[in-house]
Amino acid sequence: MWQTIWFIIRSTIISSAPIGYAALGGVFNERSGVVNIALEGILLVSSFGYVAGAFFGHSAWWGLFWGIMAGLLLSLIHAVATVTFKINHIVSGVALNTIAIGVTRMLSLVMFGQETQSKTNSYTQIFGMDIQWLVALMLFLVIAPLSYWLLFKTSLGLRLRSVGENPEAADSLGISVEKMRYTGVLIGGVIASLGGIALYPTIWQSGISGGRGFIGLASMILGNWMPIRSVLASTMFGFADAIRLLDFVKAYIPDEFLTALPYVLVLVVLAGLIGKARPPRADGVPYVRGE
Amino acid sequence: MPKKKTNNIKYFLLSLVAPVVGILISAILLFFLILLIRKGSISDTIHAFYIMGQTLTSTQDLGYIIARAEPLVISGIAAAIAFRAGVFNIGTEGQYYIGGLVASIYAIYFSFKSPSLHWLNVIFVVIFAMLGGALWALIPAILKVKKGVHEVITTIMMNQIAYTTAKYFVNGPLSGVKGGESLEPKTMNFPAAVDFHRLYDIFHGHFPFPKYIPLYESLFIAAIIVFVAYIIIFYTNWGFEIEMLGTNPNATKYSGVPPKVVVFNAMLWSGAIAGLINIQEIFGIKGYYTHHMTSGLGFDGIAVALIGYNNPIGVVLAAFLFGFLRTAGYNLQFELGIPNSTMDLITGFIIIVMVIASVAMNRYISKLRRKEVLSEAGDR
Lengths: 291, 380
Known about the structure:
heterodimer, A: mainly alpha, ABC transporter involved in vitamin B12 uptake, BtuC, two-stranded antiparallel sheet, 74% helix, B: mainly alpha
């Protein structure tokens, strides 16, 4: 009995982590006024980055480094395209998701000799702890509270949010809108990369992100663009994922029903809750001075 | 007057700059990527470009290009209709799974079995596929109009639900897997009177068409969609209302057109057309339905619409560019071991470079226009 409960809790935490990190990454992006549907691509490249980095660097630390670098690089392209060149945020996101699929499959073929999956990586321990479990726990114990503190208790957070709410006002106070939006996108990118690392450190497969970046965005909206609430919203998806694996659930409920349930719930919640959920005012709007 | 005409040609040429720049810069990137993969062999890299050029000259490859472009044409039109109204229908992906599913249920249970009624079946397949797609766009459309929920998030949810719904039907009520026959989950086969093979048989039986050219009924349906979309967008009030809403929502408000109605209709029609995206594979090639069909056609269609400036003709050109890149990619993989996913990378890159270039060009064009208006005012 206790064993089953512990199993459910543990797998809920592990399954929620990629979604929660993506949601948190989304919070930083959108609070600064940039819509980022490339979170899906960030999960994919950082997952690949971890496996390839650890496999060829013979250490989980190299995995962490390359995982975060990969996600950061994709975010940087998004920031350059949307903030500097001011193109439509969703367009850039769609393109980056395509690029993420292409670049991971291409590199997988070049590095591992196979397009659809990597070789098995055995460097998954840091400080004698399983890195997937460690990174997943970190989300709830460290990263989520830290994000709340950063966004709502520091002057950097205040500036970042002001740029997402009212860039004209922020600009008139001498805050650089571009610099703040870069900050938001890049911090969000690093956080989302941790989600990719928590995905599956042992092996990378094409399509391993499986829409979790998009679900992270949904969690972010359910959490009303608040860091801790967004992470908690992600546990709903994680929980549904966790109980799917249990034998007695499998016996009574069709698997497809449980898979679809969280998405249906999101729609129901969105239908009832709107008015309370409010995006940052300048979310997704390119800022051009003097317009 | 003649002065104005030359200006229009000038603006048309300027609007071509972005796609050309996008393709050129991406070709340069592709050159260096291949150079990297082939470990610095310049002759191999040049040979790779030669293989890509050859793709255009073989009739077999031409057939593949058409077959790959056809779903993307429909998908691009579906996305473009929503984009023109300023709505982001990311849900075309799910809408074609459901459109195909509903049409398949018709084909399996309710279709006419007599071969002479084939064309009636084709019409009903189209209607049911459109109904299925529209049904899947209905919930996001209602939530958008009534509750103001952003359509990107609802359509993404609907995509996930669509896939599991399709999976449920294929594995459950519609399952047609017989023991030892195949490992792929699939529905029962469609009756022969439904299969989109009539035109193929006619054309290939009586004319010397190369057999790889996919002359299924679906190809002609796609052509009709392009034609109708073009007429609606450029020659009807409804197209004008959509255009106005997408470019200047305030003008719409003051002209008495209810924006919510326009958005709602654009979303539903986008979904209805999206329902038809994969009928080529389901009814032309496979003859049964499975959730393991080609995925990602919806997202590719969004890219196609973006590259084609949401214009039906542009969409057709962009879809053929995609079809060409994919086909050339397979040839490169086959002959030089260059992963065809390189082409995904290039595709994404073309979109970004092109959109950046077109944003810059638009700024330049509006500057030119302003200058022109000012100088005309000065003449008077």
